[in-house]
Amino acid sequence: MAKELKDLTKRAENYSQWYNELVVKADLAEQSAVRGCMVIKPYGYAIWEKMQQHLDRMFKETGVQNAYFPLLIPKSFLSREADHVEGFAKECAVVTHYRLKNAPDGSGVVVDPEAKLEEEFVIRPTSETIIWNTYKNWIHSYRDLPLLINQWANVFRWEMRTRMFLRTAEFLWQEGHTAHATMQEAMEEAIRMVNVYADFAEKYMAVPVIKGTKSANERFAGAIETYTIEAMMQDGKALQSGTSHFLGQNFAKAFDVTFVNKENKPEYVWATSWGVSTRLMGALIMTHSDDNGLVLPPHLAPIQVVIVPIHKNAEQLKAITEVVEPIVLQLREMGISVKYDDADNRRPGFKFADYELKGVPVRLALGARDIENGTIEIMRRDTLEKSEVEREGIAARVRDLLEDIQNNIYRKALRHREEHTYVANSYDEFKELIEKGGFVLAHWDGTTETEERVKDETKATIRCIPLDGDKTPGTCIFTGKPSAQRVIFARNY
Amino acid sequence: MAKELKDLTKRAENYSQWYNELVVKADLAEQSAVRGCMVIKPYGYAIWEKMQQHLDRMFKETGVQNAYFPLLIPKSFLSREADHVEGFAKECAVVTHYRLKNAPDGSGVVVDPEAKLEEEFVIRPTSETIIWNTYKNWIHSYRDLPLLINQWANVFRWEMRTRMFLRTAEFLWQEGHTAHATMQEAMEEAIRMVNVYADFAEKYMAVPVIKGTKSANERFAGAIETYTIEAMMQDGKALQSGTSHFLGQNFAKAFDVTFVNKENKPEYVWATSWGVSTRLMGALIMTHSDDNGLVLPPHLAPIQVVIVPIHKNAEQLKAITEVVEPIVLQLREMGISVKYDDADNRRPGFKFADYELKGVPVRLALGARDIENGTIEIMRRDTLEKSEVEREGIAARVRDLLEDIQNNIYRKALRHREEHTYVANSYDEFKELIEKGGFVLAHWDGTTETEERVKDETKATIRCIPLDGDKTPGTCIFTGKPSAQRVIFARNY
Lengths: 493, 493
Hints:
With 493 residues, chain A is an alpha+beta fold.
């Protein structure tokens, strides 16, 4: 067994430590020399690239186009929208100078005091301000609308407590920014995009999510309504995995963006913004992986199938390779990514453990006896089940197995969520259930005050007000006041 | 004729102004509110995305993997390599604080003096330092080598004089950073990548380039050897379009990156880095475009074919649409991107001018008479030639025409370069020829002093010492000293 695997903390012992170790041992990412920033390593980045490809296509299918806006935002832009500055100013990286110079004592370089900027810039924590300042020149008439733009970019928020992928100072994301002629259209767009996120999470990541709106307290700084997808991790905690905001006319008013409507009257433009980030990597890792390492959904795995030869000498390897080559070709023709690992410097047992750690969905192994018998060993990563099968028709079998794994891990995650979703009808019951870890459906009176008191006492927050599901009214578990529907409480990442 | 087109400055009048106007009028990019930074608009970004796709595939075919490293670089890292800091410190964006706060007078936000960083960061102008600091932990043995990593990223250099795409403060690029066990291998890698760049420029951008090495004066800060591809613009000026650096052991020594070789001895690692940027967009625009607007190579055009109906009423439009739909399908099945522009709010003449301005390679147009006659009008953007042809077999004809355009604009650019490449055998002759605009092949004694004197007197620099071509020695046109081979002098962007 590989050393890395032997050393992996068990989930039951310390879930949080298991996660941190797994990110490093599976070669996904590591801490960088810059506090709070990570290096995304090739294996982790390959998964992110697959996410990007699918999301980008899904966005474009709704008519969205990509563009690119500046990294730096003039400090004054941030203040234009009152809630927005309140939400972001406290964690900004501030650029104050445009030059370094040699230190007089020869010890290196220092900031050149003569190169102080007249107005400071912040590194974008999000781009609503610079983008709406740009849209002012792009939008004049209803004929210029809707404007559906996305950018793939890095953003920076100087977070104090960071965890790789889940919360880092710099992170990679996409941010969509759309402009519309009517409130109705903008709201529909915000909902359309949260639906795209939910589809992506479920079909590609195999992560079941609950769609809902955020309470006022958890809304994006500057939004009228925030839609969210919430996933449950294996420890029962919630992970907010993507958000889509209906911004009303807030940014249009802050940046004076108006258009002439069909009746030739000026109106402020309606806006949305929406984003998912490398945080999705955290959701992916924490939803499916186990004490042996990563479990990747086949639809996002950089290597879907690995083939390992088991041989005693070069002659045996040659015979195995002759059998493997056509299988590799068949799999590639089916669009399946496959690696034949015939490297001689690692033993099969080490390779097995390493590919398990890395979450490769299907492993095939062939020895001298398999060559004689026309068989092959097949192992599925999700259940770790191993079986010896006929080699005849192996490619089709692998293709079907990949789909089966994709569905199986989704169903497993869904079952886990269902088993850890509770209904509380009193505050005492709520407090007991929230300790078990999971989602608790409870009535809430709709006030921020109640939400904050519950949070102070139980560390649970309202993850969302579900869009689908039971809409029966009731009374708040905390205040006894009327409640329109049950909401989801949980502890969260 | 569309107003935008009528207003476009002619190349012969003012080439530089023509370029600046074209970038804006063709909707490629615009100046942003941040000095020296541009907004890349959807149409421009779509071309950049196509470039990225091809380059990314070409890199991966050589075994390169993508990863991501932090945006911010600790100030002290920059000083570790003496030439490197000299080259980059003077144009760095410096992050000194991590928070803003409300201004006491309520006027907005100000930098919070209590949030001063202990050590400042610079926004990466290039990532050798942070990457080699990371490689220290990744490389221990010869078995860890070669390490072939690329990142797609934004970088920032506080340039004083900027021009969209050609020289902007923030720009998008890819930077490859490889690590090798031997000098030989690293040099081969640097050459392999400049060859990839040349292939990409010629096959996709249809831009002929000359491969060569840079003189010491023009080398990357920290490199032992810089390989470059140089293209000639229509005004005869050179545009450096991509560079690949052999870095020797400079960064390995600066960041103490050693490996144990096969003989179990520690050695410093050998390095390369290589990059192309959104500057390629400038090369693309300036090489092919004309007084009517952009001319895009079919291999990179976001829209390869546009179809415009010419109709007097809804009935005619319906008949045209019925004929167009199967053509659109056939083209799409051939992998050709096609747009059927049946929008009713712009007249055909306006559309024609607009798609010419945007450089769409092939335009098809159909009127009521064409429907009767079984014909279609076809226009190629490169020559503006228009002809009426049989509709039968139009898809195959368009496919062939796209390849013809791709080849034709390459040949045209190559012919232009050949016609504007001169040989100078004396300094007087050199001064006369350099005024004509173009490349001048001349002997040079190999010293920085001579290069700088020639530059001071003629504004021409050595663009490269060509890898291919005539290697006959001679005597320097300026000093009369021995010269190993002719080099290329030109004025440049």
